[in-house]
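We modelled each protein-ligand pair independently. The example shown here corresponds to the zinc ion entry; the chain sequence is given first, followed by the ligand as SMILES.
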Amino acid sequence: MYLKKTLISLILIMLINQLCFAAETPDPLRQVLSITDEQIIAQAWLAQLRRSGSLSDDPVSTDYLNKLGLRLAGGNIDGFSPKFHLINNNQVNAFAFMGANIAINSGLIKLTESESELASVIAHEIAHLKQKHFLRQIHEQRKMMPMTIAGTLAAMLIGRPDLMIPVLGVGTQHSINFTREHEKEADRIGIKILIEADFDPQGMPDFFKRMSQNSIYNSRPPDYLLTHPWYESRIADSTQTAKAIKYKQYANKLDFELIKTRLELKDLIDINFYIKKIKNKIKQKKYKSEDVAKYKLGYALLCAQEYKAALATLATLSKEAQDNFIVKLTVIEINMQINTKLAQEQLNALQQFYPNNQALNLYLIENLINLNQNLPAFELSLNYAKQFPDDAKSYLLLRQTAARLDKRSYIHYANAYWLLLHADLEAALQETNTAESLAVNADTAHKQQIAELKSAINAIQPLVANE
Ligand SMILES: [Zn+2]
């Protein structure tokens, strides 16, 4: 209890400080929450998401979602670089969070039938962020009950979502309950975002209709409808806007279909039954796209660990589909299981064209580890961690390669970083100290890394310090 009180007073001081410096802040909404504090809250929230274990471990799908989201966002939002998180959860839901974070449940993607439908949901969430609905909401709430906000922030910072008072409504599954006005605004701006990024605006009413139809067959409506009520009027509004746009043919993207396939098959219980079914469909030519049907079969065979049959199936895709980045990565995923040397050649060749791709770089490290090429794997994982500091997996790989090379200070450094990303500050600090003591004779770059990590932990420490 004492801990909670200390935090509340700390945060109150934080908020009061901001009011005192209000004159220097150009954006009046920033008086309620500075960029730095928003960043800390966002990090705490992300740590919760990592701890919950619900983040997808498929780098290919996550990569796709981020590309799609960045195309819609078109750049930074309120000073933050937007990030899109894929959550393994069959509930139909999506939500935005502070620090320009957007989370999409796999269940929502599975329900969409076109990339424009998925894009419409993301565009709506981006609009909430662009219109600063969080700040506006806090601004409003603060007038009435500043304590409640402080208590909520405190609960987030100490990583106790159960203590969170539902003002901000942050769980991993519930977004803030925006007002009806905010929802309408997010729809209006969202459809603009959709059109500007060259997606079909009809995707928005189409997906609303699909969700409401879907809820008829379930005992409870999708979470997304619970946090986004009034959809009847929103179907009408968005249909009208979409109709006003000149008719244009929008091709359904192969990437979207491939990612949907991966999500659908990932946790399928009876994969062999599915394989039989899809084989029959291909035989009878019962499909919209031959390439998609064959990818479904190929990926199902990969899930069933029938690697050679999976490769043979993917080799029958059209030339165009075989050149698709996701198909190429899928072939590599299979070869990583049965022919690591060939996988390495394919990874190197593909990396020439996509040097900064997250999924590709991750596979490169994993495959080098499989090939026992520990030094290049170690160096790549150091680079990867620098390039994608939010991906906790990179520190697991760094630890693994450091252990093989007996680089002990790096093992503890990787442990410390991983713990920091999971909001276990005390253990993170301990590991950093161990790394520091082992790095006496290390190069300056590594010493610098440890020092930076230590100061990052120390910066958050007072906010979560026990007494
Ligand atoms: Zn909304």
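The longest strand covers residues 83-87.
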